[in-house]
Amino acid sequence: MGAQLRISREDAALPCEVCGFPTMHVAQVVADDGTVLGRTLVCTTCQLTRQRPEPAATEAEAPPDEVPTA
């Protein structure tokens, strides 16, 4: 089951405590069937600048444990 965040365009934005920009919104957490599960605060500026974790290296991409010597 997935969920979406819906931000109202009519509601005013608040100043974010982290970045200081007035881009903090109250968002609804909505299930796939349209049921509102709850509300949360979302800063659109902080979300855009947040570093996404890099995917873990697979065994094929990982360097070998031993390096051949001549």
TrEMBL record:
Q: Which residues lie within the region annotated Disordered?
A: 50-70
Q: Provide ranges: composition bias, Low complexity.
A: 54-70
- Name-wise, this protein is Uncharacterized protein
Which species is the source of this protein?
Amycolatopsis vastitatis
